[in-house]
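Consider a typical record:
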Amino acid sequence: MPDPAIPRPTCASLRRVLALFVPLVACGTETWRADLPADPTAPVAVRSVTARRSTVLGLGAGPVTLDSDSAQNSVSFELEVVVQRELPDGAMLGTRSACTADGVVWGTHFGGNAELRVDAPDTRQTSSASSFLPNAFAAGPPTACEVTLRVQPSRVFPEVTHFPPIDVGRFCWTPEGITATACPEAALPRAIPDGPLAIGPVRAEWHPSDASTSGGLSFAARVTVGDAAEQGDLTAAAACVGDGTPLQSRSTLRVGLRDYRPGESLAITGTAFRGDDFATPPGRCTVELRQRDLDGGRIVPVARACLDDGRVTEGACEGLVPGPATVRFQGRSATIERGAHREGPLRIDDAGVWDRIVASVTAARDEGIVIVAPPDLAHAEAVALVETAEAAHLAVAISTP
């Protein structure tokens, strides 16, 4: 609950604020409203739409200037809906939007609204719909938005009845008004890339930890979906190196692509590490974006970027890529390899050598071990390393040079 002693920022009083301390402020709202024709055959009818365009401040890293001349950079939608026939328990009104801002069509996935009451037929209910907010690559304002609506099962409660989503309509907003149709192509110029995905630019920054934040690596990227995009998830991992052994970290990022149309972009953001993972800020970090398919769980890298002394370039930092560590055997010794970094050689006849290798991989947070072993390596020795690694819940693969 807000502290009553701290006045809430208003458009009249707010001029220069630190966005880091303002969760969200909306100012100068401009409104459109339209009644839409109802489809009597649809399970849910949208009777009216209210669109509001306003100025929004989000969380940021620096000072933000807001005054009466600030552009209205966001648009949100409120719907009046009527349930026209019986629906399964747990049914939701799902909405997604595609909005043009700064010459790019930005899409969203289908989000469910828990406020849809299936037990109140013929009663008007108020529901929000997917909206456009500025992101790291689009300041806004939006010039057009197409909102698609469907009835879908709840993703929150696993005990609800599952059924195929049911399309119930769409509408288009532009500054000229709201229509119960899809937006014309000229209003939503979806530029389809040649490949499955077009990624870039990628931004990254290291934040030290302090009393107010745990710090770590933050990154953002623009992703545009192509015709051949697989219906999977985007994930990410990172590897950073300071004065010692490189460390790895899985990212918080997980974004599904199934709802996006070819030519639509999304701004993805994620974090990795904590600021106190390194005694001093790491000199270099590689961010790797990955796609994981939904069927076999296959994961493939789709983009890499290097943060080197505050500067971001395309591609991995030299000799620094997240992934499994390579344990390479030569004669009676083994070396742990992480890109350009080498640890060892370790004598495999020494007591506890397998535990030392596994402990090193665990401490560096490597994504498992790839054992590169010559054919003459004793079977018992390879098995000993595999068993020690699996006991520590590490993935293991064996390769021969």
